[in-house]
Design brief:
Shape of chain A: globular
Number of helices of chain A: 9
Helix content of chain A: 40-55%
Number of strands of chain A: 7
Order of helices and strands of chain A: HEHEHEHEHEHHEHEH
Largest interface: A-B, 40 and 40 residues
Strand content of chain A: 15-25%
Radius of gyration of chain A: 17 Å
Oligomer: homodimer
């Protein structure tokens, strides 16, 4: 009996979540704000990629970064150091940002004049995939050290993302990582997903990804 | 109003969970079964570590492995290949094993004659830490590529574990990873936590960890 009750509650929570996410999407569209929901395992290189992207993006767009973590503020400090407006969101133990938390974070930001809102979600391949935040782009990072089998194990993440960055490609010689296999496995989840290979450390592949992203943002906000 | 209702339900779920976990612990103690709950990010090397440990453990103990994944069976197949009894548990989208799922998995196993039950939990640093499964030992792996700051960001995981394996130490030269800093950060979460540095690939540090684990198991089951 208690199990049935739990399922009811979850369904109502998801329905409420999706309505709030739609409202965020509508609001962002109206304000010409492009919002990225960046998701990955812990340590896949979310913050490092952002720190490398920001100089090129800052020239073109006004940017705000929301750093979601369970219980730390180290990433928001790094973003502030990179010269962009950033806020730290503590999820209070929750394993992902939901639409309401995202809405509150956007409000805190008074983000109406931003071209680009980047949310670095909690490091996790499971929970963030389950919750629509209202982002324009769901972007996942999968790092070479994690292995090319991750789309088999966490298919929902690769189903809900429109683009995947394979990061830390400079460590390829250390790990057996099959580029073709990972692309096939990602496309089995979402045949339209873009896949980029790059190393934020060496810069390999950064230009192609940055140009693609700039183009996506400009198509949406101009 | 709906929020208060959610919190109520979560609390009752946790209370039920903890009662089932206690029952599993009692049952394992009665049957002299040592149970390990192995937790880590996706790709930290849980399966690889197990495949390296099993030959040494198999000599001394009868072993069963429960592979928990959202939606794949690749790991259970690898375990079967290593010559141990293994079952694959699909969590149906859930981001961690709970006590009831664990209880059902143990039952499927008819595990009464096992000395050692190893559960490889879903790859995730958040959810598995929140849920007591009834394991004798909560063991976390943190891989060098993930970075030494993870105990700052996922403190609960390092609070609920009695031992942490720092894996992939052979990749140290590729990543800036501060051994002393990570030990301090782990001990800030749990001052009694054991910390082992090892590479399952090169074998560095494996002996020390294996000997410690064998000793822990024998103290409990003999």
């Amino acid at each position: 009996m208690s199990e049935i009750r739990i399922i009811d509650v979850h369904q109502s929570v998801f329905a409420v979540n999706d309505a709030i996410a739609e409202e965020t999407r509508r609001r962002n569209h109206e304000h010409r704000t492009y919002m990225i929901n960046l998701m990955a395992s812990p340590g896949a290189g979310k913050t490092t990629l952002l720190l490398k992207l920001i100089p090129a993006l800052k020239e073109r767009f006004s940017i705000g970064v929301m750093e979601a973590d369970i219980d730390a503020s180290v990433d928001a400090e790094k973003m502030a150091g990179a010269g962009v407006r950033s806020i730290q969101v503590h999820t209070g133990g929750e394993c992902a940002m939901d639409a309401e938390m995202t809405r509150q974070a956007i409000e805190e930001f008074s983000a109406d004049d931003l071209d680009l809102l980047i949310m670095e979600n909690v490091g996790n391949l499971v929970c963030p995939a389950e919750t629509d935040t209202g982002a324009t782009l769901n972007l996942a990072i999968l790092s070479v050290p994690e292995g090319d089998d991750k789309p088999l194990k966490y298919p929902l993440m690769f189903r809900v993302t429109q683009a995947v960055v394979i990061s830390k490609t400079d460590t390829r010689e250390y790990f057996s990582f099959d580029d073709d296999a990972v692309v096939k496995r990602i496309h089995a989840c979402n045949p339209d997903s873009k896949v980029f290979f790059l190393s934020a450390k060496t810069g390999e592949g950064m230009e192609e990804f940055t140009n693609w992203l700039i183009n996506e943002i400009e198509n949406e906000i101009r």
